Amino acid sequence: MSENWNSDLLSCCDDMKSCCYGLWCCPCLACTVSGLFGQNRCLPLCDICSPAVMSAFGIPLCVPPAGLALRVGIRQKYEIKGSLCKDIATSCICVWCSWCQLHRELKYRNHTPAVVNQPKK
User: Fold this and answer.
1) DSSP-based three-state secondary structure for 3
2) Structural Rg of the chain based on CA atoms
3) Structural domain boundaries of the chain?
4) What is the DSSP string of 61-91?
5) What NCBIfam families does the record tag this protein with (predicted)?
6) What is the pLDDT of residues 51-108, one digit of tens each?
7) Quick one: pLDDT at residue 86?
């Protein structure tokens, strides 16, 4: 059973904290998402360094490898509808929105509801 993303790609108003975090410090948000998903927090820094290193060898790189890998991993773990082509397009075209969506998704999935028991009087 596949389900949809909890929020759309451009649904920043659903969680203004994630949106502001991504707007003001997207690399920090990306590292937070990586940590929330159980990966090394420094993994998204590869997306910053890899284009420069690859272009030094004459290989153009437009797909952020860590961002794409985390997006695919989250989508597969939670059985979210989508495809690799959509993940590539999202990771390349709308980087900040993608990280914000991943952050909102993980916050929703990792949220555990609190149970309050009141003693009877």
Assistant:
1) strand
2) 17
3) 12-110
4) --S-HHHHHHHHHHHHHTTBS--HHHHHHHH
5) A_thal_Cys_rich (TIGR01571)
6) 666 667 776 667 788 899 999 999 999 999 999 999 999 988 888 889 999 999 999 8
7) 93
Q: What are the beta bridge partners of residue 114?
A: none
pLDDT, residue 121, reads 66
Residues 84/71, Cβ–Cβ less than 8 Å: no
Please report which residue ranges of 14-118 form alpha helices under DSSP H.
16-24, 26-36, 45-56, 65-77, 84-93, 95-110
What are the φ/ψ torsions at residue 5 (nearest 5 degrees)? Answer: -60, 150
| CA pseudo-torsion sign 90, 92, 93, 95 | positive
Structure tokens at 41: 């927090």
Block residue for tokens 């509801």: 113
Among candidate residues 76, 83, 65, the one with its CA nearest the CA of residue 105: 76
CB 34 within 8 A of CB 27: no
Helix (H) or strand (E) holding 25: none
